[in-house]
Amino acid sequence: MTHTLPDNSPPIESRSADPEGPRTRATKPVPQWRRGARPYLLALPALLLTVGILYPFGVGAFYSVLNYGAANPTPDFVGLDNFSSILGDQQFWTSVRVTMMFALLATGVETVLGVGIALLLNRASLVGRIFEKVLIMPLMIAPVIAGVIWSLMYNSQFGVLNYVLGLGNSVDWLSADNALWSVILVDIWIFTPFVAILVLAGLRSLPKEPFEASDVDGAGWWFRLRTLQLPMLWPYILVAVIFRFMDNLKIFDHVYVLTAGGPGLATRTLQIGAYEDSIINLDYSRGSAYMFVLWVIVFITARFLVSALGKAQRRAAGSEG
Amino acid sequence: MATTLMPGQKRFTPSAILADLTLLAWFVFSLFPIVWLVLLALKTDAEQTTTYFSFSPTLDNFGTVLSDRGEELTSVDFPTALLTSVLNCAGAVLVSLVVGIPAAYAAGRWRFRGSNDLMFTILSFRFAPELMVIVPLFVIYNQIGLFDTTVGMIWVLQLVTMPLVVWILRSYFQDLPEDLEHAALLDGYTRRRAFVMVALPLVRPGIAAATLLAFIFAWNNYIFPLVLSESEASTVTVAITKFLGGGGQAYYNLTAAAAVIAALPPLVLALTIQRYLVRGLSFGAVKS
Amino acid sequence: MATLDITGLSKRYGSTVGIDAVDLDIDDGEFFVLLGPSGAGKTTTLKSIAGLIEVDAGSVTIGGRDMSGVEPYERNVAMAFESYALYPQKSVLDNLASPLRSGRTGRYDDAEQRRRVDAVTGTLGISHLLDRLPKELSNGQRQRVALGRVLVRPADVYLLDEPLSHLDAKLRSAMRAELKQLGAVSQTTSVYVTHDYQEALALGDRVGVLRDGRIVQVGAPEQVWNAPADTFVAKAFGQPEITLLDAVVDDGRIHGADGAVDVAVPPGLAVTSGQRVRLGLRPRDVAVAGAGAPPDAAAVAGPDADPVAGPGAGRSAPGELRMRGRVGLVERLGRLVEVSVDVGGSTPVIVVTSAERAAGEGEPVELSVPNHQVHVFQAGASGEETPRIGSLAGATDEEDRA
Fold this sequence. Notes:
The complex is a heterotrimer of chains A (321), B (288) and C (402).
Chain A: H1 32-63, H2 81-87, H3 90-121, H4 126-134, H5 137-140, H6 143-154, H7 160-164, H8 179-205, H9 209-217, H10 221-249, H11 253-259, H12 270-280, H13 284-320
Helix pairs in contact in A: 1-13, 3-8, 3-10, 6-11, 8-10, 8-11, 10-13, 12-13
Chain B: H1 14-41, H2 60-65, H3 68-74, H4 78-109, H5 115-127, H6 131-144, H7 150-175, H8 178-186, H9 191-202, H10 204-220, H11 223-228, H12 236-245, H13 252-272, H14 274-281
Helix pairs in contact in B: 1-13, 4-7, 4-10, 4-12, 5-7, 7-10, 8-9, 10-13, 10-14, 12-13
Chain C: E1 4-13, E2 16-26, E3 31-35, H1 42-50, E4 57-62, E5 65-66, E6 77-80, H2 92-101, H3 110-124, H4 139-151, E7 157-161, H5 169-179, H6 183-187, E8 189-194, H7 197-203, E9 206-211, E10 214-219, H8 221-226, H9 231-236, E11 243-250, E12 253-256, E13 261-264, E14 276-281, E15 287-289, E16 320-332, E17 336-342, E18 349-354, E19 364-370, E20 374-378, E21 388-391, H10 395-401
Parallel strand pairs in C: 3-8, 3-9, 6-7, 7-8
Antiparallel strand pairs in C: 1-2, 1-4, 4-5, 9-10, 11-12, 11-14, 12-13, 14-20, 15-19, 16-17, 16-19, 17-18, 20-21
Keywords (chain A): Cell membrane, Membrane, Transmembrane, Transmembrane helix, Transport
InterPro entries (chain A): MetI-like (IPR000515), MetI-like_sf (IPR035906)
Domain ABC transmembrane type-1 (chain A): 96-305
């Protein structure tokens, strides 16, 4: 590229050579308020849709202070009666316990396994490269279908699981004692890949230099993981944890298909409880009160986790910068 | 990456073999149910509960669930459910795109008052307990005749599709240098034409990812059609569960065949957008 | 026909100032250069003129028409972006033809479009790239395409944001020489943004210096060079930077640099006794005289019969300032050398001189600077920029140079 301009380069005509001649276009000023309104106009349809969705939310919150249901179509205001009734109800507290157990255990195991799988896949071994392609398959299958698959596999009469594990007919995977563990296992089967691909993306975006330095230092893999990789991966892990924990708090699909909340109350999560009250028993107000409590739990959890994410991101940015 | 095999490094160290074996174990666990589902779908009625791995495979079950004979046997109208699912999901995604793209653009380009509130409200739909909305909608839909209709389903599926579309696309629009649209404005194009000519083509991967992911999640959704539809607008996810719940003889092989068919669209779509999947699944929070 | 008037233009980004009350009057056809370090508000100024950002206050008038609230596509302004802003999915040809196809820059049939594109690409030497995509070009090529997209169309104002910054040094000076002669540029009001003072001096009909969002000085290249408004402008022009020596006015004389400087206050220079000042010496204005002369031999070196010369002070001839010092560092720049001369005081005097005339490290030298090239600034804290008072040539200087 040593081209220089020829001395007598053909002049490029400016406006004087405009075929239309010098233009004196009438310019149309746009008033300030219209320029300011631009983003609002673009967002207006989404805003309307949001309001349309918030409306039933509001109605639901309203239901929770009524005694509304199919059996009582002309409801009265009952204040916090639904809530005090729920809070004094052993079933509700069982649901809270089941939901918390489910959310904490499933999220915890998925996170640990997901991070481990991501670290192993990041080694880029032949086995890893082949499996990476199919990693997300369980994640993309509808949880309901996963529930159907596993309910067939768990079947104590002819289920393949007992056969493969050589247990005969001896284990009833969905008994009152086992059911919660079994549904957690299904959740782990579906969602561990979610954590894994997020963390894997994080691993691959990490800067290489610190690790090369630690290689030179001869640091062990555990030391490297604990002091270098994990702190930088925290933001990615936390995004995964937020998604998983919040989803698990309102868990419904595969649990409902596998056990419908049973046996007894063994797997009756809060959203399954609300479903029973409001849709099966048609007690809208009681179901809404259930949901309102769950919503408060989700909201508080979200606030906490998102602020933790912000901190982790700032720290990781600092350690990378 | 430090853990990558370096040239000259031994490939078959004990720890490398242990790591591969661990991965192998996970993938046996991960893929076994899927393989087994496909095997079950290939079995005859006689073999469905009697054999595990040795049988004479047949594709008949797929034909059966997709024809009237499937409904005669199981009283589940699977073909109609498939069609309903396609309509619901396509409609829901279309609405989300039409409504969501301008909003994502506005939120990605300008910091206007309330933009964050709007964005986080839309995101909260993703995390809110579904029944909080469904219970009142169950009552409202029954009153205004939207119960068990495609329109009603498309509306409520916005809870699933809107947050995805808006958040994924906002992150793509934020990544797009503003100078490009500015150049188009100074070339003499209006804002709308600058958007269509410059911005839109450049976020096409984002639109594709958001569209397909929204479709997948709408397709996989269960609780909305479970509560808000009966038979007319019932979807594949609801239909699948009915295979098991019905009285009389259980057709596990037909259930499996239907499950394979229902699981196929999301899997195929996911594979086509694999490069953008992480960014989509994390709503733009993690960029790969 | 297309003058450009900017009045009180201000823009803040949150709590940081983009530009602050910028006023500029640019004549029709003038080539105006905005010079400033990064973050000074150069690009903000250009984008405000183009209407691409909402300003907080002030107005832009193009060709006598107030552009407040006028959409960018209605302003008939073309801009070359520092980021090139080439449409990644379009070929070079389509990028260049884009402004001709919008219908707002005039009406062009296909043949006329092609003719204009060919003229531009021929001039810029990118004819062979027409079918490429921007990602297949080098940065220098991209920059020329970006420039071409401006030149291909008529406009009331051309806005050029560092259009040469990514070219290699050789091409850059060639382009600099030719840019102004391009037919389109020479006829069109242009605002050219750069952080390179040589570009500013070589290209500008006038130069405006921006600092922290404010215009510090506007003037012809000779004006800003010869009479910089303050130490900031003085430092912005010239590489190496101007040397600033602390001095104090006392009893009709200016003393500084631990006695190395001792000259009479020239008539017409507005300083008072006891006032602290700074003397600015451009490295290339300083001549190395009497190199090798021992300091005590300097008593006979100058014709100046000043009886109160300090121990280190040279005898300043009527037309110049003389100083004695000892060579510190010598750095070869090629044919020239950069010499740092310790004249006493904390600040060494930087001199750029020809290699033949340079003394060796540690050798004593005598320096001389013509009086009109010794700039006198108000004193200030370290890092503080202070306005210029005048030069040692006194009143005659300002009259000559104005």
